[in-house]
Design a protein that fits this description.
Number of strands: 27
Catalytic activity: [phosphate](n) + ATP = [phosphate](n+1) + ADP
Radius of gyration: 27 Å
Strand content: 15-25%
CATH architecture of the largest domain: 2-Layer Sandwich
Shape: globular
Family: Belongs to the polyphosphate kinase 1 (PPK1) family.
Distance between the termini: 44 Å
EC number: 2.7.4.1
CATH superfamily of the largest domain: Polyphosphate kinase middle domain
Largest sheet: 10 strands, mixed
Function: Catalyzes the reversible transfer of the terminal phosphate of ATP to form a long-chain polyphosphate (polyP).
Keywords: ATP-binding, Kinase, Magnesium, Metal-binding, Nucleotide-binding, Phosphoprotein, Transferase
CATH topology of the largest domain: polyphosphate kinase like
CATH class of the largest domain: Alpha Beta
Number of domains: 3
Length: about 675
């Protein structure tokens, strides 16, 4: 494009540090008194789970890159030592805040609701007797103990709780695995009246140390947890020859290497030094945590008397008037495009559609891409029924969906055994699109039916992930989607798409063209405006185009739930860019893009973030919204989110996560609640 300064000097945020800033927004929800107390406890669980994954993937990658030869990493600008130092400082700050929220706010608030979490020092004589009996009858048979002889990091299961103590008789240390998987993390104690008392499983073990190690002399036990790395997914971040050079520089690397030994605050230095030596860990591998680890277990913490004030008010999935009234979803979609919004509306409509297809004698074929497959679901059952009924079923299974690899491959084999045509991952590319295409024989010929979503085909995540789902028979979309599946089946190498935006083919170039079009409008003194909603914004080329658009006078509003490498409010770079992030009871997961186009607005939705991996290294599908009614509905929802002044944070230059201030003249808008009300009063037609 003409007029671009080839000497542009733009600045960007560090991806890893800004991801931690995102997780801090989750921590803010745990501290926010707007949220009911048990929901605040769940936000601590989410924060903890997120941090575990951060160590498993991102910290692991940085630590491995430390071992890469400088001559290889220097051209890439990799500075893992400095980055790790900054990250650990931020992690320490957040962990300290985490402890204060739990101990100084959550526990006292629970107590006000007559829910008490006790530790060993709080036990009465009667409670000790009860817990000793419980230990004998329910816990003892599930324990696995071992000493230090021959232990390695492989001895410890990744992310599991263990306890360690110093045995004066053995003059060494002893270990016991905390059997949360078979016993549960929390034990309710016997109480009278409307008072509820719980204790942690590890505290029951501390109380019964003499029974766990009957021939030992151990004063107390301490909690530890070993985190191990996941696969090193370098292809997500680096390209071509650099990937191979990095792998070669790392030589032989084993998956499952330790990334963090988290130990209980107050553990004697003598004990954790012995563990460090035994497991061959360095100082950087050890991290002091609070008294409790694996806060993700609080996802299952009970509401003992089912007090509705302790949890979010229920948002039962809304019924869609048109779907409810129709006897056939095929006939419904044939009349006009339909759009559903999860979790506000019922995911079962999609399951109903596939179940209808399984029985429909007019269905010729079903094609679907599955990224994260639920272990059991109506959707997979319907696909199996379709096979039993002799339908042609083609399934693309993404075998490299992080942490779901084994489950996805297992399902792939099941589908193959039942007669489906199953295709797996492409080399060096993932299939991240959420698409379904069915061919149906009708009176006027064979018609294609398409589904394009922003979220996975997963009924469980659809209960708390905010996503959109388009049902259509529009041939402009269905013909392109048929081509996508031909690509997945290796039938087409050089496709041509007229309507859909598909990575790694035309998606990046089409987005760039639309941004350039807004720049030209601004330069010609015409209205120019861009709204983009996504999970993460990282791709430097796309960010540069947004910077150029800002400099040209294009007004840009971004909604970014996760990390964002674009730096707003920089003179000569991003003065016209505003960024907010909404973190609330549901996880914002949809990707939506709106371009003003001098009044001829274009609106898109799909599976792709503006990250390099999504634009260049994954099969992603983004569709324009062609139906006028759906266009208006989706734009209304986008505008509600842009107006949030309750759960929206400003993503500024310093990543301070300040909440948007509510002017006295403005109504309070909490977008997820307002969207629920909007859809409740406008139930589709």
């Amino acid at each position: 494009m003409e007029g671009i300064d080839q000497q542009e000097k733009f600045i960007y945020k560090d991806r890893e540090l800004d991801w931690l800033r995102f997780n801090e927004r989750v921590l803010q929800e745990a501290a926010d008194h707007i949220n009911p107390i048990l929901e605040r406890l769940k936000f601590l669980a989410i924060f903890s789970s997120n941090m575990d994954e951060f160590f498993k993937v991102r910290i692991s990658k940085l630590r491995q890159l430390k071992k890469v030869k400088k001559k290889v990493r220097k051209p890439l600008g990799l500075r893992p030592n400095k980055t790790l130092k900054i990250l650990f400082e931020e992690i320490d700050r957040q962990q300290e805040l985490f402890g204060k929220i739990f101990n100084d706010e959550i526990l006292p608030e629970l107590a006000k609701s007559n829910i008490h979490i006790l530790q060993v020092s709080n036990y009465t004589k009667e409670q000790k007797a009860e817990l000793k009996d419980y230990f004998e009858s329910h816990i003892l048979d599930h324990l696995k103990t071992f000493n230090s002889d021959g232990i390695t990091t492989e001895t410890f299961e990744e992310g599991q709780l263990y306890m360690v103590g110093y045995d004066q008789n053995l003059n060494g240390i002893r270990f016991v695995k905390v059997p949360t998987d078979s016993v549960g993390r929390f034990k309710e104690l016997t109480t009278e009246g409307n008072c509820f008392k719980y204790t942690f499983l590890e505290d029951i073990l501390k109380l019964n140390t003499d029974r766990i190690f009957p021939n030992s002399k151990i004063e107390t036990l301490w909690n530890i947890k070993l985190s191990k790395d996941a696969e090193l997914y370098l292809d997500d971040d680096y390209e071509g020859e650099w990937v191979q050079q990095i792998y070669d520089s790392l030589a032989k690397r084993q998956v499952g290497q330790p990334t963090r030994l988290l130990y209980e605050k107050g553990m004697p230095e003598e004990i954790y030094n012995k563990i460090k030596v035994l497991l061959g860990l360095g100082k950087i591998d050890l991290m002091e945590g609070g008294k409790r680890h694996n806060f993700s277990d609080f996802f299952s913490f009970p509401n003992p008397n089912e007090n509705p004030s302790l949890n979010f008010e229920p948002f039962p999935p809304l019924k869609h008037k048109a779907f409810e009234a129709s006897g056939s979803i095929f006939e419904l979609v044939k009349k006009k495009d339909r759009l559903l919004h999860f979790p506000y509306q019922d995911f079962s409509y999609l399951e109903d559609w596939i179940a209808e297809a399984a029985k429909d004698q007019h269905i010729i074929s079903i094609h679907i891409s599955l990224y994260r497959i639920a272990k059991e679901s109506r959707l997979t059952s319907a696909l199996l029924e379709a096979l039993e009924n002799g339908k042609e079923v083609t399934i693309f299974v993404e075998a490299k969906a992080r942490f779901d690899e084994e489950n996805n491959i297992t399902w792939g084999k099941i589908f193959e055994e039942k007669g489906a045509h199953v295709y797996y991952s492409f080399p060096n590319i993932k299939v991240h699109s959420k698409i379904l295409y069915m061919r149906r024989r009708e009176d006027d010929g064979v018609r294609g039916y398409a589904y394009i979503g922003t979220g996975n085909f997963n009924a469980m995540t659809a209960k708390f992930y905010c996503d959109h789902a388009l049902f259509t028979v529009n041939p402009k979309i269905t013909k392109d989607l048929e081509q996508v599946f031909r690509i997945l089946k290796r039938e087409v190498l050089l496709p041509k798409f007229k309507t859909l935006l598909i990575s790694p083919y035309n998606l990046r170039s089409r987005f760039e063209e639309m941004i350039q079009r807004e720049i030209q409008h601004a330069q010609n003194d015409k209205p120019a405006f861009i709204v983009a909603k996504m999970n993460s914004l990282e791709d430097q080329t796309m960010i540069d185009w947004l910077y150029r658009a800002s400099n040209a006078g294009v007004r840009i509003k971004l909604l970014v739930r996760g990390f964002c490498c674009l730096v707003p409010n920089v003179k000569g770079q991003s003065e016209n860019i505003e960024i907010i992030s909404v973190v609330d009871r549901f996880l914002e997961h949809a990707r939506v893009f709106l371009f003003h186009n001098n009044g001829e607005e274009e609106l898109f939705m799909g599976s792709a973030d503006w990250m390099t991996r999504n634009l260049d290294k994954r099969i992603e599908v983004v569709t324009p919204i062609l139906d006028e009614d759906i266009f208006r509905e989706l734009k209304d929802i986008l505008e509600i989110q842009l107006s949030d002044n309750t759960k929206a944070r400003i993503l500024d230059r310093e990543s301070n996560n300040d909440y948007l201030e509510i002017p006295a003249v403005k109504d309070k808008i909490r977008s997820q609640y307002d969207i629920y009300e909007y859809l409740g009063s406008n139930q589709g037609s």
